[in-house]
Write a structure and sequence with these properties.
The protein is an alpha/beta fold. It has 12 helices and 10 strands. It has one domain: NAD(P)-binding Rossmann-like Domain (Rossmann fold). 40% of the residues lie in helices and 14% in strands. The strands form 2 sheets. It has a 7-stranded parallel sheet with strand order 3-2-1-4-5-6-9, with helices on both faces. Helix 8 packs across helix 12.
Length: 355
């Protein structure tokens, strides 16, 4: 059973985000007053999906302006909150300036939010949305783990500003969070470390890497073939539930990998093809690693030959047993997650069957 505080007021940073939207929904279901921090509260079109949730659920929502890299930006939003969910962080694989576009928002944002928690007496619990990117850099890193699988005990030591900068940004941000948490005693910290998040979005027209990946499987982008690039996948609804349990379960302690399935790009394509048939140009074959090594870097600048060597045809093996043991987590079937995500894109008009 989750144990909610008497003061059921919670801050969610980046509240219009993919994971954040479902966290907001869970809080509203439990009757919380949600302080939703967003870049621009005046852009009401972006808020209408959250407003619709608040209209039909027991809780309520209030909007505040918050900017990751501005110290003190979350003071008003955090005032009176007993728990803080820090979900805001850029998720992008290809950027022009990794330091400015990825590392600074992730690191400075974490620092600003948690230092504001130090100055807000009502805050007793902070949950930071990290990533398995803070645990591993490449799939091949699993060979260096004690039991041949990624667990909460490991940290990413192979990513850098020049190689896999997104993964590096998540690593330095989470380390900063633990450093700040250990230097004070007012509030406690827990982190959620999701694998690749899929499933339906609160806003069906949202962008982002997860939605784009689903669309590319069905719009012909990958029709000539895809890679056996190992990855973990978890349903966004399960990630939101884990946030609630990390925040309010009495047994929660430390970091938690959110992982439903160890899979790869090609298996995902086959699951979608089985569910939706031949009406969409899903990939039908896996590109051999040697061919990917030769060709893919010219087609997709994000995929270097080093990255292909260390990840393609290398299984991603993660361990979610800590979340099951401590929090009682269960995870949705991969088929349900992918089918719901793809169907939502079809229903929203973002994907159309092939002619």
């Amino acid at each position: 059973m989750l144990q909610y505080p008497e003061n059921k007021t919670a801050l969610v940073t980046g509240a219009t985000g993919y994971v954040a939207g479902w966290v907001v929904k869970r809080l509203l279901e439990e009757g919380f007053t949600v302080h939703a921090a967003v870049r621009d509260p005046q852009k009401i079109d972006k808020l209408r999906y959250l407003d619709a949730l608040a209209e039909e659920l027991p809780g309520s929502i209030k909007y505040f302006r918050g900017e990751l890299t501005t110290p003190g930006s979350y003071a008003e939003a955090m005032d009176g909150c007993s728990v803080v969910f820090h979900t805001a962080s850029p998720f992008a694989i290809s950027v022009d300036d990794p330091q400015k576009d990825l590392v600074d928002p992730a690191l400075l944002g974490t620092r600003n939010v948690l230092e504001q928690a130090n100055q807000t007496p009502s805050v007793k619990r902070v949950v930071v949305t990290s990533s398995v990117a803070a645990i591993m850099g490449d799939n091949i890193d699993v060979k260096k783990t004690p039991d041949g699988k990624f667990t909460e005990e490991q940290w990413n030591t192979t990513s850098s500003l020049d190689y896999n900068p997104y993964l590096y940004s998540k690593t330095v941000a989470e380390k900063e969070a633990w450093k700040i948490a250990e230097a004070q005693s007012q509030w406690t910290l827990g982190t959620v470390n999701p694998s690749f998040v899929h499933g339906p979005a609160i806003n069906p027209h949202a962008g982002g890497e997860s939605m784009e990946f689903i669309r590319q499987n069905g719009d012909g982008t990958m029709k000539s073939g895809t890679l056996r690039l190992g990855m973990g996948v978890v349903d966004v609804r399960d990630v939101a539930e884990m946030h609630m349990r990390v925040a309010f379960h009495p047994g929660a302690n430390g970091r938690y990998i959110a992982l439903g399935h160890n899979t790869d790009f090609f298996e995902i394509a086959q699951v979608l093809r089985k569910a939706f048939g031949e009406g969409y140009p899903f990939p039908k074959r896996a590109v051999p690693k040697w061919l990917a090594w030769l060709v893919v870097p010219f087609v997709d600048k994000r995929m270097t030959r080093t990255m292909i060597s260390r990840n393609v045809d290398v299984k991603w093996i993660g361990d979610n047993s800590k979340s099951q043991r401590d929090l009682g987590m269960t995870y949705r079937d991969l088929e349900d997650t992918l089918r719901d995500a793809f169907q939502q894109q079809v229903d929203a008009g973002e994907l159309k069957p092939a002619a």
